[in-house]
Automatic annotation (TrEMBL):
Organism: Anaerostipes hadrus
SMART domains: CoA_binding
The name this protein goes by in its record: Redox-sensing transcriptional repressor Rex
NCBIfam families, A to Z: PRK05472.1-3, PRK05472.1-4, PRK05472.2-3, PRK05472.2-4, PRK05472.2-5
Gene, per the UniProt record: rex
Gene3D superfamilies membership: NAD(P)-binding Rossmann-like Domain, Winged helix-like DNA-binding domain superfamily/Winged helix DNA-binding domain
Length: 217
């Protein structure tokens, strides 16, 4: 397990879910062990990088054996907090919010549970998305406090996101999965993971066009 006194770099943390995903795929193929070299060939990162990353949390490997896939998958899951119950809400029940609620892997693969969706649109309030009800945003404060919700996905317009996020942080939300195309400025004890879809797409188009130009030179 991780040493809470160590400062683990954000780059290492961002690689952990990728390790978890690859190990899950190996488990599904009934592969019981793998070396850092074999894992590096699949993930396209160096074996030394894998060993350095995992050594931040204790290593887990055995010389001459490699990694026990099931054990490493379980331990990384614990580091990521997936061994705990992770209830969440989605604020914004439009197309994107409903798509997230319909994403089966939240429950089936990673143990997240969408407890409710929230919206201001009267046409959406009261409907169910994969068995999860859309509630009026007026109920947000009471729902967060009553159910002890710590994680929220924001799929609302950027002009609404800062104000509602500030209130939700005051009500107890500790982590935002932010799909609104705006940066949120919240207290230091609140974590924000931004998912700016347009920026990701622009990065993709840059790389496509830059590669084409290089090939044509």
């Amino acid at each position: 397990m991780a040493n809470s006194d160590k400062n683990i770099s954000s780059a290492v943390i961002k690689r952990l879910p990728r390790y978890f995903r690859y190990l899950g795929a190996l488990k599904a193929k009934n592969i019981t062990r793998i070396s850092s070299k074999e894992l590096s060939e699949q993930m396209m990162v160096t074996a030394s990088q894998i060993r350095q990353d995992l050594n931040n949390f204790g290593g887990f490997g055995q010389q001459g054996y490699g990694y026990n896939v099931d054990n490493l998958y379980t331990e990384i899951g614990k580091i990521l907090g997936l061994d705990k119950r992770n209830d969440m809400i989605i604020v914004g029940a439009g197309n994107l919010g409903q798509a997230l609620a319909n994403y089966q892997s939240f429950n089936e693969d990673y143990g997240y549970k969408v407890m409710a969706l929230f919206d201001v649109n009267p046409k959406l309030i009261g409907i169910s998305v994969r068995g999860v009800k859309v509630l009026d945003t007026d109920e947000l404060e009471n729902f967060i406090k009553t159910h002890g919700i710590k994680i929220a996905a924001l799929t609302i317009p950027k002009d609404q996101a800062p104000a509602i996020a500030k209130k939700m942080a005051e009500w107890g939300i500790k982590g935002f999965w932010n799909f609104a195309p705006i940066d949120l400025h919240l207290p230091d004890n609140v974590t924000v993971e931004n998912v700016h879809l347009a920026e990701s797409l622009m990065t993709l188009t840059y790389n496509v066009h830059n590669r084409e130009e290089s090939e044509n030179e």
